[in-house]
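Why do we care about 3D structure at all? Because function follows from shape, and shape follows, mostly, from sequence. That is the central idea of this module. The next example makes it concrete: a single protein chain, its amino acid sequence, and then its structure expressed as tokens.
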Amino acid sequence: MATRVDSNKAWDLVDDDLIQYNTRQYENKYRSTDFIISNLKQHLRSSAHYNILDVGCGGGGNLYHIAKEFEKCTFTGIDLNEYFINFAKNQHKLRGLKNTNFKIVDFRNMMEEKYNIVGSSQFLEVLDFDKAKDFKHMCFQRSDNGVYFQALFTEKPLDYEINIHDHIYNKVVPYNIFSIEGIKQIASKYNFKLTQKKQFIIDVDLPDNHQGRGTYTVKKQNGERMMFSDILNLPWYFLYFKKQQ
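And the structure:
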């Protein structure tokens, strides 16, 4: 029987892979970040204040751009990696952002606090299956209004457990793909309903110039671009769930 992967071992560390990734997000706002912002604008009223939890925020680069866009909201970023939480604190302070704060915490060890909205960006898919199951439930338990995920999903009733053995950085990295129907069933237990589902179709060409993991694009006959990391197709979606009254 195969040994279960512990995803914390891939992310609760400091290596060149993670440093480069987290630094790049500040200097170059990704198309995926613009995608998240455009979708959130459909759910966050510009005049309203929301208390938002961002789980698995890493070095805070993605959250930096989102928080700048929604200045009236208060964002709390959590991650178990102390180095990158401190990195996020320093970067946000250096760049003058006032509506974010950060905590070093594993989401499974959170206190019972509630938030208006609980969200995550490119986090669910890099959790091992056991933690992913806990995380899906936690999001709906901790929210009193909305939950969003930007992650790898399929519309079929299938979950794909994918573990990449990265010999460049000597670590095992989950890149799991989860069933949208499966997460809808969990949401319904907490009286949440899926109100938006949108696939991310990138609008620029990305070259395949990576030594190992890294996103590149391939054009389909209809002109749409598919995203890959090596041989793995990356079906990114944005899902938003609304609490039913």
